[in-house]
Design goal:
CATH class of the largest domain: Alpha Beta
Bound molecules: flavin-adenine dinucleotide, iron/sulfur cluster
Largest sheet: 5 strands, parallel
CATH architecture of the largest domain: 3-Layer(bba) Sandwich
CATH topology of the largest domain: FAD/NAD(P)-binding domain
Number of helices: 19
CATH superfamily of the largest domain: FAD/NAD(P)-binding domain
Length: 488
Amino acid sequence: MSNPLTKKERMQLDRTDMPERNAVERAASFEEVNLGLTAQMAQLEAMRCLECKKPKCVDGCPVGIQIDEFLMLVADGEIQAAAEVIQRDNLLPAICGRVCPQENQCEGTCVLAKKERPIAIGHLERYVADYMRMEGLQTVTEPPPPTGKSIGIIGSGPAGLACAGDLIQSGHAVTVYEALHEPGGVLVYGIPEFRLPKEIVHTEIAGLQQLGVVFEMNAIVGRTHTLDELLELHDAVFIGVGAGLPRFLGVDGENLIGVYSANEFLTRVNLMKAYLATAETPVLDVSGKRIVVFGGGNTAMDAARTAKRMGAADVRILYRRTEAEMPARIEEVRHAREEGIIFDFLVSPTELHGEDGMLGGVTLQRMELGEPDESGRRRPQPLEGEMTTMPTDLAVVAIGNGPNPLLLATVPDLERTRWGTIAVDEPTGRTSMEGVFAGGDIVTGGATVILAMGAGRRAAASIEDWLEDGNWVLEEDPIESAATDTTG
Ligand code: FAD
Ligand code: SF4
C-alpha cells in the first residue's frame, strides 16, 4: 500500500505531539514522562513524510538509518518490517528513540524542519522498538558456528554493548568487563528512569546475554584485572570506558558538605536508589530545600529534575551562557521548565560558602556573551563588579566530564590526545597498541549515545578485519579526535 495522501494534504497535517504525563504529577514521580504514540498517531505521523528522493534525514542520522524506508513501512502499518530496517543500523532503537538529540540530527535535517515541523522521527523509532518489545516480537538470531576467537570488551555503555552485539553475531566469544555491579554505563547510572526506564536497558542486555555475551561485573580493568591479562585471554580488546571523571568548578568552598558532582548525585539516586529510606548510599535529604545545579547540558537537566522529584522546594539551573547556547536536548529543557525548574542565565559561581562545613550559599558573577570560542558558541565573560549571592542547601556540579582515568593510568604505552582521551585511527578505532581498539566517550570526550554506539560498531567491523588478516595497519597515525563535550 502506498501513502494515500497527496503532498499538499501531508503538508497540511500537524506534527503529532507526544502524549506526556501531567507536569505536576510527574514532578513528584520517577515514572517515564513521555507516554508513547498510539498506533493511530504513529501511522498518521509517518504519513506526513514527503518521501523525498534524496532523504536529508538519513544524512543527519550518525549511523545512517534508512529513515525514509522505515517511515513508509510505519505508514503502511508494517511495524515488524520497519523494525528490521532500523535494526540494520541501530541495535538500541528503544534507547536512541528516547534520548538522541534528534533536533540536531535526523529531525534537524528533515526538509520539514524549515517550517519547524520535522517528522517526529525519534518518537516513531521509539514506537517501533516499543511495539516489538511489548508484543514479544524481538528476533533472537541464532549466532553462526563459533569461530574460536575471543574478544574482551572493557565497559558496558552503548559503545561496549554495540561492539559486543556485532561480534557475538559473527560467532566470536565475547566477554564484557564492567566496573560497576550493573551493566549499561550512563544508560543505567546517569540517565534517570523518568527519561529512560531501566527495564528497556535490561531487555537490551538480556538479549545480548541470550546470544551468549558474558558480562563480568565488578571487574575494574586497571585494578582487579590488567589490560595485559585481558590481551592474554582474548584475541582482541575493545576499550569503551567512557568519560566518567567529573569536572569541578575550581572555586573556594567546593569541598563543603552538600556539594556533589552530577555523576555522584545521579549514580547514588539512579543506581543505588538513594531515594529509598533503606538506601545504603543516600544523598542529603533535599525535601523542602533549595538546590542549585551548575551547567546547561542533559546532565544538568537530569540532576535538577531528579532533585525536584526528591521533594526539593526550589531548584535552579545556573548557566554561564544563555538558553540559545545550552547543549541540552530541547525537550528536556521544556520538560524541566514545565516541572518548575527555574533557569538563571549568564551567571558563573566564584565561591561556595557555608558554616560548620555545610554549604549555605553561592556567590555568582554576572556574565555577558563575547566573541565565539572554539566550540562556536559565544564566550561568556564577566561583567565587572556585578556580583550577587544566593542561599542554597545543596549544589550539583554538572559542567562536563573528562576521560575515565582508572584504566589509562595503568597503560602508559597507549597513546593519548592532548585532552587525555585515547588516540585512535579513524574510522577503525585502532589504538597505538596492537590488538587494542577503542571508541565512544573515551575517544571523543562526552558525546551522545548514538555516536558511542556507532563507534562500537565500527570498531567491531575493524576487529573482524584484524582477526581475519592479522594485519595491524593504521590508515594514518592515531589521530587526535576532537573533544565534543560542550556541557559547559
Ligand atoms: P559510558 O556510557 O560512560 O560507559 C562506560 C562504562 O565503562 C561504564 O559502565 C563504566 O562503569 C565502565 N568502566 C569505566 N572504567 C572501567 C574500567 N577501568 N574497567 C571496567 N569498566 C569500566 N547522550 C544522549 O545521546 N542523549 C542524552 O539524553 C544523554 N543524556 C545524558 C545524561 C547524563 C547524566 C550523562 C552523564 C550523559 C548523557 N548522555 C546523553 C551522553 C551519553 O550517555 C554518553 O555519550 C554515552 O553513554 C557514552 O557511551 P560509552 O559507552 O562511551 O560510555
Ligand atoms: Fe521524510 Fe523528512 Fe526524511 Fe524527507 S527528510 S524523507 S520528509 S523524514
